[in-house]
């Protein structure tokens, strides 16, 4: 791979678009291009352009203070440019750069509004991707890739740690360092994500435990509710079926009693009509004058007895309904009241037990016995309040009881009067004459029929009372079923009694137990289960993410360890080669003497690379945050020219320092040749003899590396294949002229012949 073309437009003094085309390698040489021109013509701007296109971020190295200083600022006769653009076109036919292009054009463009672009063959890309591609091809703006003015001497005055940067490209580990840097960034980001995931997990976990408990209670509540619903269906269904069966029997009995009353009433009325007709048909004086009033008194006593029986029936009905209402309106004590009362009774028991242990006199024992009696009574009341009261245990209204007793006494008196009058009628009937036997028989039949009517009415009244009680019970039971079962009420009312009927009395304690358990669990939002499921899914997801992140951390750390080992081995081997080549070139340039590169080992712990330099908030070179485990932390340079005994580089003369730096740079280039190297007046401090030696070294290195040399020295120019001249007119714009030295030499030879 080699640099085929350099294009500039609007960069510093190159306002117009210019193209610098470089020759193809041939004859075992990569070629050398020399750039010449007077001082101030803009030659070094070509060096800055190449460095800028390769991704340089340091404004100091680009000889500027602001980013837009690289854009042509205009002159008296020419307006300023709106953007700067530099394109490096590489011949990539050997695919040294890992892209599927035979020609790779790397472009950097900057607008005055601060918008910056990096392009690869016209497609937008990232600077990191450009750097990685160039690093794979062993091209970079650091160390010896672009050696500008002052950088030669900087190699010697730099600190050992800064000097180490000049050896990175030579060791060939830059792609490994970039990979390691990316892995380190990935490790850092993964660690941050892991910490964030763990923090979220710690925040979610307490809430998840709470939701798990609530979900468990909700699940338990669901089980209890399911059992309760089934039990309620059995319990209320059984009660409803039994009540409907009783209602059916009572209604049937009431209808039968009503029919009997109707039959007996018709029979009684028929006998009364016959008796009345007979009494009207007999002659005056034939009827016993005392019998008719007695008969009327008897009928009046019967009517009074019926009215009193009706009053007694209504009172009994009210009492029965009151008992039904009292029993239906009963509700169990709340669980909190039950717990409170049970704790109070237990406390009194403990108090009485303590007093019994401390009893010494009979009076104290009597007091304890009284307190025990009070406690027993309180316990009994508490137990009764926990049970559904039986109807006979309900005390009715005293007024109704008084009314019932009064009506009963009057009814008994009326029945006694009826019985007395019946006896008198029977006696009077026996005393009647034989001709009056028909009337007597009618009266006896009427008395018997009235007895049967009285019994039927009593039976009808009893069934009416029972029916009223059952209907009231039905109304209250229906209300209770609807309140307890709500939309499931129809299922209980549609319950069919099974072959093995349930005992509602046995089911009731279990029903109350389940209701108490539900009350103890309390109300839980049904959305809790959904929230728990969502939180559990998120918790599991984060747990899986944490596992993946931990695995990624381990994998990344293993990759970093492997890269560190490769960097270490490759760096050590390359450093030995550089040291050897440095000694060779030093002796070649100085015609003797000795030199050495002394590595400074790192501390045991990994340290952060100090390859970067902050200038105006930007880094001069290196990768931001790059770390390395390279055992070589820095490099010390020892140089002793022939005939001298020097221990410090500061004692070298200017020429000696330049030769030492050039020897070091040449050693690096010889160890790991780059596709191309740009040298910006590195031979400025050399005399004519040393310039010749430097030119011969360039000729040797040109076998492996393409050189672009900005120079003023003739000996250096003679090594070039193409000569570019840079001039600047009155408008402040740099222009380029080119000469092919090979063609010129051929033309000169032809002219001489």
CATH class of the domain at 1-140 and 674-753: Alpha Beta
**Cα-based radius of gyration, to the nearest Å:** 61 Å
Helix proportion range: 55-70%
Average pLDDT, all residues: 79
From the structure above, extract its key features.
753 residues, alpha+beta, Rossmann fold, 6-stranded mixed β-sheet
Write up this protein.
This protein has a domain of 220 residues: 3-Layer(aba) Sandwich (Rossmann fold), CATH 3.40.50. The chain is an alpha+beta fold. A hairpin with a 2-residue loop joins β11 and β12. It contains 18 helices and 18 strands.
Task: Itemize the secondary structure elements and their pairings.
Blueprint: E1 2-9, E2 18-21, E3 32-36, H1 43-53, E4 83-91, E5 103-111, E6 116-120, E7 123-125, H2 127-136, E8 146-147, H3 151-157, H4 160-163, H5 168-171, H6 174-281, H7 291-328, H8 335-357, H9 362-386, H10 398-431, H11 437-485, H12 489-493, H13 504-521, H14 527-590, E9 594-601, E10 607-608, E11 614-615, E12 618-619, E13 627-628, E14 632-640, H15 654-671, E15 676-680, H16 688-701, E16 706-710, H17 714-718, E17 722-728, E18 734-740, H18 741-752
